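Memo to structure team: turn this sequence into structure tokens by end of day. - J.P.
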Amino acid sequence: MTTNVYKPYLGSGQVYARIAGSAAGLLPVGNVSELTLEASEDKKTLKDYTRPGGGTYASVTRIENVTTKMTLHDLNKTNLARAAFGNAITIESDTVVDEAVVAYLGALVPLAHIGATDVVVTNAAGITTYVLGTDYEVQGGGLLILAGGSIVQAAPLLVSYTFPDYSKIEGITQSAVILELHFEGLNEADSGKPVILDIFRAQLSPSKALSLLGDDFAELEMEAEVLKDPSKSGVGISQFYRVKQV
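Reply from structure team:
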């Protein structure tokens, strides 16, 4: 086998993930613009006291920890739940009849579900039906009660509506997730040859920021500590991660 010194790298590819140790398939996490591995070291040095001028007599370096970082651009329910230490719940479409709310003029009245359509708003007795565009407007998360309409301040209302399928993420309800990560990479600087990275166990840290308003596409920064996988054993076999390339 000859040694190929020429190996510039410009990568693209897809990151896949699953709960470490689970009997489940590796699923794509979406569009990832950055995937890195970073190691920090614990270095011990002994000064040379045997001669003038000093210097280093001995040095020992140990790996303190390895972290992986990803920049995700698909804020789907799974990625959001993992970043928020939460759980993702799929709510199936349905119809709500006579949800009770209280009106405040000029204010948003949240509804129990989002994306309401076919909205009917009445007074608490169900006798008076209010007019869309005159008494209220429908927003993504509820009703905006319009000043100058027929609805009075603090009036109890009944709202009937239909809502679509949607996802709900309850933040900070789970412990840290440990993922198995697999990167199916291609080296564009070397004729698109495959570059494969396997991280056996990566314990996620909570996302430090979640941008939901701004002038550019949102990014979801995720960081994880690479943990030892005791199931990997043998001489020269890593218990942390592995890279394969053509």
